[in-house]
Structure prediction request, 315 residues.
Amino acid sequence: MDERQFSAPTRALQVVRGSGSGVAKVHESQHPGYTIVGNHLAQHRELSFTAIGLGTHIQSLPEGSPVDIRTLAAKFPEGRERIAAALRELETYGYIERRRERTAGGRIVSLTISYNNPEATRARLARLAGKEPMPEPEPVPEPEPKPKPEPAPKPKPEPEPVVRETPAPTPPPLPHPQAPSPDRTRAATDLLAGLRRDDPRLLLAERDVRRLAPGVASWLERGVAPDAVRRTLTASLPPDLRHPAALLAHRLSALLPPPLPAAPDAVAPTAPRPIPLQNCDRCDRAYRAPEPGTCRGCTAMATAAATAPGRRQAA
Prediction:
């Protein structure tokens, strides 16, 4: 029987070894789900390991994925400072570009552009700008004209269906405080302007802040704490939030709480006054009664004497 060779690699595990010591590689099929990363990034001598790993992760994400510091810090164990430093390294060497752009709705958003090969991109843009001559494309022979087919008979057009447009419902008006106060208006403006700290998508234009400030001031007038207003406005935001000002206006109107009822007056219960002491007119003993007179004993004796038989005969 042949001896079993444990040192021989199996067919399921093919190890590609180099000469001598160093790294040995195990190659497995990665389809589907892989990302092609150039050695100019993976073996960059000036970037830190954190920047190289972060650049590789950004290139593996689909377009539209958030790559801000807050989102990346929630996904990886590195803190915000290390992630921010790695992003600055990638921006310095041209692997990412961060811009601030204004949308058609007036919002200012952050756009991050990822370059998988910045050197090749710069060379291509230089050729397009005319700094380097671009190679002329080879002439493509024109194809021979094909005979035109006979036109098919046009079908009779069907009458278009009549579509009745339903008017969009008018949104409810924003609430306004009963007694305007400059302090409440200032607090409402600061609250709305600071909502972007809770969620970057709640970045409002200055005109939207001025328009929504009376609604927040009416909440503050009704005794709602600023933290409670912030939690109500930022809770359970939709994933595809496109119009933050319209959403906040709807919540300020639809979720308006009633005015805080007045607190009842705290009146301490008064103890009943005790019945005053009186002195009996006959025996001079003290007893309790609302008015002066005789005590119970003297009253009973007088009643008994008045109803005695000898007294009735004498009468």
